[in-house]
Amino acid sequence: MKKLKQRNKKGITMKKHLFLIALTLPVTIALSGCSINIGGSKSKGPEYNQQHETDKLQREKVSRLNEGESIEAVRNNMGIPDFTESYSKKDKKIKVLFYRTQRIKADGMTTKDECTPLIFVNNQLDSWGSHALSEI
């Protein structure tokens, strides 16, 4: 008991020293896995910014489309589509090209709900957008 009551050079008893360690150790361990994102959604990284700019560019290109353009001209302008569909309906050859124009979930995956569909009938641009797609 005498040893525990002995004071160290700074005047703290051994019991108090052990008590402080016992208090701070669990708190330190509990907080060691925590992190705080001070920048919030503004600091999403270069990949996010690049994809955001690509989506914006694709929206601009879609806004300049004209009905009747050939599928080749649209592909040359828009690039490779994210998804494609092709089928026949009443002697018409229908192709749908999907281009990503918006981000819904930042998960690194592109889904059709993030894309604008371009509908071609007999290789000519007929219409675009989700409403037009639901009408065919």
From TrEMBL:
Gene3D superfamilies: 3.30.1450.10. The keyword 4Fe-4S does not apply. The keyword Zinc does not apply. Residues 50-62 have a biased composition (Basic and acidic residues). Residues 40-62 are annotated as: Disordered. Pfam families: DUF3192 (PF11399). InterPro entries: BamE-like (IPR037873), DUF3192 (IPR021534). Keywords: Signal. It comes from the Bacteria. This is Lipoprotein. It comes from Endozoicomonas numazuensis.
